[in-house]
């Protein structure tokens, strides 16, 4: 059994499971305390219906339940508008959860994204996990349909950490399916078949049957 505390940060409901669903399930199975933070309400700019906010929250909780996670936190910042939100406000949402739960490991968005909300969350994660917070490790995940669409002229997501999620792929797909409004038909990247295929491809890069890929942002090591 492990006694680590883990925080997974997503700009919108479903980002967390797309990027790190299998890894979250594996942490939970190992006995780690896993928290999810959804920074925005994930709805208003896409659906123009405030009633969907609660639906998304319920989907996030169902997703977390499937992964074996009990704690989901909501920041309620405006969806698709984090580039207009003062940086300090986004910082404060993440800092609050970091302060309350003292995570050892944090997973967040990559800066190599087409989605500006994702980039803003990455920037604020760096502020919220400064050395004085005690966070030991920060990793950035890839977000299907965002990290892969940045274009060849810009910096691309580069994987240098692979987590073996053999045995957790079906759980990840089942958890993602809780987000009924976000699932798409194959070959869209946000389809169950595509997520399974990505896990197989990432696994083959690292010698696993299935894996999730991350970029190490930093790691603080006191002993070697």
Automatic annotation (TrEMBL):
InterPro entries: GlcNAc_PI_deacetylase-related, LmbE-like_dom_sf. SUPFAM superfamilies: LmbE-like. This is PIG-L family deacetylase. It comes from Haloferax larsenii.
């Amino acid at each position: 059994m492990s006694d680590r505390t883990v925080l997974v940060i997503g700009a919108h409901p479903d980002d967390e499971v797309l990027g790190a669903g299998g890894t979250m399930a594996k942490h939970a199975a190992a006995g780690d305390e896993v928290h999810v933070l959804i920074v925005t309400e994930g709805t208003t700019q896409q659906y123009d219906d405030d009633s969907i906010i609660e639906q998304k929250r319920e989907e996030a909780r169902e997703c977390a339940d499937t992964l074996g996670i009990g704690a989901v936190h909501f920041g309620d910042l405006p969806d698709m508008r984090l580039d207009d939100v003062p940086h300090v406000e986004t910082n404060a949402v993440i800092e609050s959860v970091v302060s309350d739960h003292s995570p050892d490991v944090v997973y967040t968005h990559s800066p190599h994204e087409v989605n500006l909300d994702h980039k803003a969350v990455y920037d604020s994660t760096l502020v919220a996990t400064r050395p004085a917070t005690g966070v030991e490790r920060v990793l950035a995940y890839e977000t299907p349909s965002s990290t892969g669409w940045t274009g060849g002229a810009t910096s691309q997501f580069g994987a240098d950490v692979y987590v073996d999620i053999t045995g957790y792929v079906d759980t990840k797909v089942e958890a993602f399916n809780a987000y009924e409004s976000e699932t798409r038909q194959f070959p869209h990247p946000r389809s169950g078949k595509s997520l399974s295929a990505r896990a197989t491809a990432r696994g083959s890069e690292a010698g696993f049957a299935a894996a999730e890929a991350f970029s190490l942002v930093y790691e603080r090591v006191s002993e070697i």
